[in-house]
């Protein structure tokens, strides 16, 4: 039986198998869906922006 490949999501910081890779960062499918459905007026929006900035911070390091 093949082992399932899991990565740590930069948003929720949980280990998940399904999602997308952006540069060297991983966003799980659950967080991707929540981000896409979040309105800019939602209280979670600034949190998502802060977490997504880590993509560029990792890239510049």
In short:
By secondary structure, the chain is α+β, with helices and mostly antiparallel strands. Helix content is 39%, strand content 20%.
Gyration radius, in Å? 13 Å
Give the tally of β-strands: 4
State mean pLDDT (0 to 100 scale): 89
List SSEs in N-to-C order: EEEEHH
Q: Which stretches are low in confidence, meaning pLDDT under 50 for 5 or more residues running?
A: none
Strand order of the largest sheet: 1-2
Percentage of residues in strands: 15-25%
By secondary-structure content and strand pairing, the structural class works out as alpha+beta
Q: Major β-sheet, in short? A: 2 strands, antiparallel
Helical residue percent band: 25-40%
Give the overall form.
Answer: globular
Number of helices: 2
Cα-to-Cα separation, first versus last residue:
37 Å
Protein name: Sigma factor G inhibitor Gin
Pfam family, one: Gin
Question: Which terms would index this structure?
Answer:
61 residues, alpha+beta, 2 helices, 4 strands, 20% strand, globular, Sigma factor G inhibitor Gin
What do you see in this structure?
By secondary structure, the chain is α+β, with helices and mostly antiparallel strands. Helices cover 39% and strands 20% of the residues. The chain contains 2 helices and 4 strands; from the N terminus they run ββββαα. It has helices at 29-36, 45-60; strands spanning 7-8, 15-16, 19-22, 25-28. The chain has a two-stranded antiparallel ribbon. A hairpin with a 6-residue loop joins β1 and β2. The protein is globular. 11% of the residues are buried. It holds the Pfam family Gin.
